[in-house]
Amino acid sequence: MLGRLDLYALIFIVSCMISCSSNETPTPPVEEPEEQEETMDDDALLPNIDLSNWKVTLPIGNPTEIEPPAIVNYATNPVLQKYMYNDSIDGSLVFYTSPGSTTTNSKYSRTELREQLVAGSNKVNWTFAQGGQMRGRLKVQSVSGEEGNRDRIIVMQIHGRLTDEQRDLIGEDDNNAPPVLKIYWDDGKINVRRKVLKDLDVNDTDILRTNAWTDESNWFDKNVGFEEFELEVIVDASSMTINLGSEESLVFDDVHIDKWAIFENYFKAGNYLQSAEAGTFSRVKYYELEVIH
User: Fold this and answer.
1) Which domains does the chain have, with CATH numbers?
2) φ/ψ of residue 28, rounded to 5
């Protein structure tokens, strides 16, 4: 029989032989990155955005909407925390979206703010004759797709709305009217699309129909990429102006603007992803957002 010392020596020799016979280096297990939680402290930067006259639509539910005053407490609202949250490092309000629930007249999902002149109501809106101004400082943080083929995002809109009388006149079942303005982030460039009439001689009833209008596309020269940029939208009775910072402007003051006077309107801002494919996503950061009437 082996003595205790001989047994220990044998175990040591066998262990050494097994270890020395392998040339492979052990591979550590791959761990999934943990989801980062946003934490707020007394020194955290906060976005310069008053949400008391905005509601938000989310890509979940039917879809889910959060109106004032509940939206003001977005930072502690468990429904909102994945889609609308503070980045405490750079003081932005982050809007995240991916394909999910959609609104009635769209195939795409959004995490997007909708202006409410009267908090909690969609029925009070404004006309071009009354005018308005929206200014935002923002950037696209991330978006699905490769360079040259990234998914597009609508970051600002002016959306039209039918009055109840106009809705009944053309036999529609809701108050939806076309968006007279859609501002896209498109692979780093800013594309401004506005509605123009297909037929300038359209009658006073048919002009209310969505199919009476079509998109006209206009591009700014600057490539904003994934950097911060400023957008300003100014409308009055006879014109619509879009400024990209202080460098470039587009001014529309033609017959199409004059004809649009029949519609009510409201501003929109946020993250409206133009993809319904599984796995796509986008994150848009707003540092400032202000509306004036």
Assistant:
1) 44-292 (2.60.120.200)
2) -65, 150
Give per-10-residue mean pLDDT for the chain (293 aa): 46 43 36 39 72 98 97 95 94 97 96 98 97 98 96 98 98 97 98 98 98 98 98 98 97 98 98 98 98 97
Q: How far apart are CA 74 and CA 221, in angstroms?
A: 36
Structure tokens at 53: 């006259």
CA distances from 260 to 66, 179, 235 (A): 29, 11, 12
Token reading at 166: 């106009």
Q: Which amino acid is at 244?
A: L
Bond prior to 69 in cis (omega within 30° of 0): yes
pTM listed for this prediction:
0.85
Looking at residue 19, its amino acid is: S
What is the pLDDT at residue 17?
45
CA atoms within 13 A on the CB side of 288: 11
**What string of DSSP letters covers 230-256?**
EEEEEE-SS-EEEEETTTEEEEE-SHH
pLDDT at 277: 98
Residue reference for tokens 């995002």? 153
158: enclosing H helix or E strand: strand 153-161
pLDDT, position 88: 86
Q: Which two tokens stand for residue 234?
A: 């100014």
